[in-house]
Amino acid sequence: MDPSASTSAEPVSGSPSRRRFLGLTGLGLTGLGLTGAGLTGLGLTGGALTPPAAAMPTPEDVDRFDTTPLRFAVVTDTHADVVLPDRAKELTRLLGVVQGMRPDFVLHCGDITDYGADDEFALYRSAVPAGLWDRMHHVPGNHESRWNPDAFEAYRRYFGPEWSSFELHGLRVVGLAPMQLFQEPGLFGAEGLDQVSQALRGGGSPTAMFLHYPLGADNYFVNDTEDFLDRIAGRRVRAVFAGHVHRQQVTAFNGLTQVAMRNTYALPSFYWVERSVDGSRLDVSEIAVPATGSPTSTAVTTIPLGRTGPGAALAPRHSAVHATRETIAVSAAFTTAPARVLAQVYPQGVFSGTSAGTWAPLAKGPHGTWQGELSAAGLPAGEHRVQLRAIGNDGAAFDRTLRTELVTNGAAVTWTAALRGAIQGALLRTPDGFVAATTAGQVQAFAVRTRSFSRRWQRTVGAVHRAPALMDRTVLVPSADHRLYALDASKGSTRWATDLHAPVVSSPLVTTVDGERRILVSAGGRLYCLDADGRVLWSADQHGLFAGRVACDGDRVFAGGGDGNARAFDARTGAEVWTVSTTTRTTPYQRMIYGAWNNELQILPDGSVLVSTVSTALALDPASGAVRWQRPGSYIYTPAVVTAYGILLFDERGNAVMADPATGGTRWSVPVAPRSFEAGPVLSADGATAWHVGTAGLLSRLDLASGSAQPLLQVSKANTFSTPLLVGARSRRTLVIGFQDGVLRGVTGL
Q1: What is the residue-averaged pLDDT of the chain?
Q2: Which of 95, 99, 166, 352 is the most buried (most CB within 10 A)?
Q3: pLDDT digit string, tens, across residues 123-133
Q4: From 21-25, 96-100, 461-465, 513-517, the region with the lowest mean pLDDT
Q5: Confidence (pTM)
Q6: Looking at residue 443, what is its pLDDT?
Q7: What is the DSSP string of 681-724?
Q8: CB under 8 Å to 202, separation ≥6 — which residues?
Q9: Alpha-carbon distance 14 to 43, whole Å?
Q10: Is 320 within 8 Å of 358 (Cβ atoms)?
C-alpha cells in the first residue's frame, strides 16, 4: 500500500448480503423507488470498504450487542445561501426522502451555511420538513466559525450547543466541534478534549462521532488530532462521520472507521446508516436523489462495532524517537505483527489541508521490532513531531505521533507559562510588563524582571478573541460577553465595563481626537467611539462583521466591513465620509470573505490608508477614498508594519515583502514561513531587524535592509495567531509568544 493512499483496505467488489438487502428493503427503500448498486447486487466500488476480517466482532461480543432496529441519515456541507434559493429547495426535496425512510435521527456534519449569517440559518431551518427538525443534530463547520459575527450566538439559537451527545438503542452518538472562531484550522485544545472525555464517560456502548473535519490518514485539518486519538483510545469509538472535503473517503485506523462524505448539495445525496440485525455492525450507503427519477443507493462500507476495532491491535507496545542534527532514529515494537511500518516527520507546514506525506518504511527486526531513520536535514532546531503508522494485512492502520526536539546552540525556549484557553489576540505591553488574554476569558498580567517573569494579577471575563489595548495605565479588553472592559494595569480591578450589545470581537484602537482620548472598537457590525470613561459618543454602521482594527488620523476613522467595502467616518460625529469597494465580487458571501473583514488598517507616512484583502493591498486617499496604488497579494491577515525601509508586509503564504510606501512597489521579497496569519512581525529597538513567527510556530529573523531571512527555531507544534512581544535588551532579550495551546513561550538567543 502506497503511504500516500488511504489507510483503508483497497476497494473490492462483491454483492451485499441477503440479510442486508432485506434489512434495507424493510425500511421502506423499495417503496421510495430506490435502485442501484447497494440494493441490486453490484459490489462496493468508488471508495467502498469492506470491514477488515480481523476486526469483525467475536461471538462473545455479538451476545452483548443491542439488536434493537436502528437507522439514521447523515448530511453535510449543505451551504445554505440566501442568493442561491434553489439549493435550499433541493435540500427540502432531499430531506423529504430522508423523512420518508423514517430515520431515528439525522446528523449534520457542518458547513450548514455559506458564512454563518442569521438569514442563512433561517433559510436552512425553513428547508427542513416539518416533523424532521426534532430528530436533527448539528455541529458547526468552518463556514460557521471562520466568519462568525457573533461568537456562535445565532448558531446556538438555532441548533443548541456546538458540542453534543446522546445515546439511543445502545449506540452513543457524540457531536464534536473542534472549531476556532475566525480561524481555518481545527483544534480540540484542553477544553475540547475535556468535552470528549465527558461525552464518553460511563458505560461501554459502541460510539459514533460526527464532526466537520476528517481526521487521520492524509488529513491535517485539526492540529492536535493525535491528542484526540490518545483521549479516545480504549473507549470503543467505532464510527466517525465527517464532511469538509466534498469527496468520499473511507479510512480505518486506531479502532475506528471514518467516512468522509460528499457534500450533500452536489448530487444531491445523503448517507444512510443502519445497524445490522445482529447488532454487530453499521451498514453505510450513499443515497443519491436526482432531479428526475428515483433515488438510488450505493453501498459504501460496513463498520464493525465490536470491542476491538480495525487497526487497534496494531498499537505498538513500545515506540521511541531519538534525534540528532542529521537524523531522527525511529523504533517500535508490536505484539500483533503489522505488514508494514512507516514513519515521517509531521508536515508542520501543512495548514488545514491534506498531504500525501514523505513516508519512509521501517525495517523489520527480531521479536516484533521495527527500526529506521528519517533525515533531519533542513529541519530547524526545536520541537518536532514524528508520525508512526503500522499497517496490517487487511489495510487497517494504527497511527501514533511522537515528539522530539532538535537541539540548538542558538534560539531556545527558556520560559513557559500555561493559561486556560487559546491565546489568540496579540500580547500587550504594559508599564510593568505585559498582559495576555485567552478564549477562556483569562486575562493574565505578568511582571518582567531582568531574567524572569512572574504573574501579577488575573481576571476572568468572557472569551477574548482579539488583542487588548493600552490607554495610559488602563488595559482595554474586548470580550465576547458583549463588554469592553477597562482594567487597572497595576492590579486588574475594573475601572469600567461598557455593554456594546454584541460580542466584541475586534481589537480596540486608542487614539486622540481634538486633544481628547478616544477608543474605537467594532461590535455587532457597528463601529463605536467611546470616551476615556467608557461612555459611547457615537456609533456607525459597518454593514457586517469587522474583526480587525480600525485606523484614525485624528479627523477620520477608517475601517473595513462585512460587505466588501472600506469606509471613512468623521472622527467627531461618526458620519460616513466615503465608501470604497475593496473587491469585485458580487454576492454577500463573496464580498464578505474577499473584503477587508479581518484587517488591521494602517496610516502610511504620506497619510494614505493601507487596507488589505485576500487578493489586494490598497493605499487609499484619506479624504476621498481614491486608490493611490494597489498590489496583488493576500495581505489581509498579518499586520503590516511601517519601517525605515518601507512597509513590511506578509502574505498568508508566509512571504515577506518590503514595499515602497509611495508606490507599493517591491523593494525585496523573501519566503519566511509556510503560512502567516495574524501574528505580526516584531522589530528590534534600532528598527533594523524583525522577528516573525509563522502560524505553524517557525520563528525567523529578517534583516530589513537586505531582505535576508534566517529560520531560528520551531518553537512549538501548536499554531499561533498572536503577535508576540519583545522584552528586555541585547543579551537579555526575550521574545514572548502566545500559542493556541494556551502556553506562553519565552525565546532567548535571538
Answers
A1: 92
A2: 95
A3: 999 999 999 99
A4: 21-25
A5: 0.91
A6: 99
A7: -EE-TTSSEEEEE-TTSEEEEEETTT--EEEEEE--SS---S--
A8: none
A9: 4
A10: no
Residue 462 DSSP label: S
Query: 332 with 316: CB under 8 angstroms?
Result: yes
Q: Is the pLDDT of residue 24 over 90?
A: no
**CA angle at 396 for the pair 395 and 402, rounded to the nearest 5°:** 120
Which CATH number is 500-636's, of 2.40.30.10, 2.40.128.630, 1.20.272.10, 1.10.10.60?
2.40.128.630
**DSSP assigned state of 600:** B
End-to-end CA distance of the chain: 44
SS (H, E, C) 322-355: EECCCEEEEEEEECCCCCEEEEEECCCCCCCEEC
The single residue listed with the C-alpha cell 521501517 is 362
| Fold equal for 22-310 and 500-636 | no
494 φ/ψ sector (left φ>0, alpha ψ -120 to 50, else beta): beta
How large is the average pLDDT for residues 31-40? 39
HSE-CB at 316 with a 13 A cutoff on CA atoms is: 24
Q: Would you state the torsion angle of the CA atoms of residues 256, 251, 25, 165, taken in this order, to the nearest 10 degrees?
A: 40
Residue 244 region by backbone torsions, left for phi larger than 0, else alpha for psi between -120 and 50, else beta: left
Enumerate the domain spans of the chain.
22-310, 314-406, 410-469+640-654+667-750, 500-636
Average pLDDT over residues 575-585: 98
Contacts of 44 (CB under 8 A, 6+ apart): 11, 12, 13, 14, 37, 50, 299, 300, 301
Q: Is the pLDDT of residue 34 over 80?
A: no
How far is residue 11's CA from residue 252's CA, in Å, rounded to a whole number?
13
pLDDT above 70 coverage of the chain, percent: 91
Distance CA 242, CA 227 (A): 18
| Domain 314-406 listed as CATH 2.60.40.10 | yes
The three-point CA angle 415-419-425 to 5° equals 95
**Average pLDDT score over residue span 269-293:** 97
What is the C-alpha radius of gyration for the chain, rounded to an integer number of angstroms? Answer: 27
Residue 93: name the closest of 261, 270, 271, 297 by CA: 270
Q: Are 155 and 147 in contact (CB under 8 A)?
A: no
Contact between 687 and 705 (Cβ < 8 Å)? no
Residue 617 identity? A
Q: Give 409's pLDDT tier (boundaries 50, 70, 90).
A: confident
SS percent in the chain: helix, strand, coil, step 5: 15, 40, 50
Pairing status of strand 207-210 against strand 219-220 = unpaired
- Give yes or no for residue 49 having a pLDDT over 80: no
How far is it, in rounded angstroms, from Cα 574 to Cα 570?
Answer: 5
Supply angle C-alpha 357, 360, 361, rounded to 5.
Answer: 135
CATH H-level, domain 22-310: superfamily: Metallo-dependent phosphatases (3.60.21.10)
- 498, β-bridge pairs: 484
CA distances from 19 to 53, 494, 645 (A): 18, 68, 74
Residue 671: CB atoms within 10 A of its CB come to 12
> What pLDDT was estimated at residue 451?
67
Task: Tell me how far apart the alpha carbons of residues 339 and 550 are, in angstroms, rounded to a whole number.
Answer: 58
In whole angstroms, give the CA distance from residue 698 to residue 700. 6
Q: Which among 381, 377, 385, 383 has a CA at the least distance from the CA of 409?
A: 381
Q: How confident is the model at residue 58 (pLDDT cuts 50, 70, 90)?
A: low
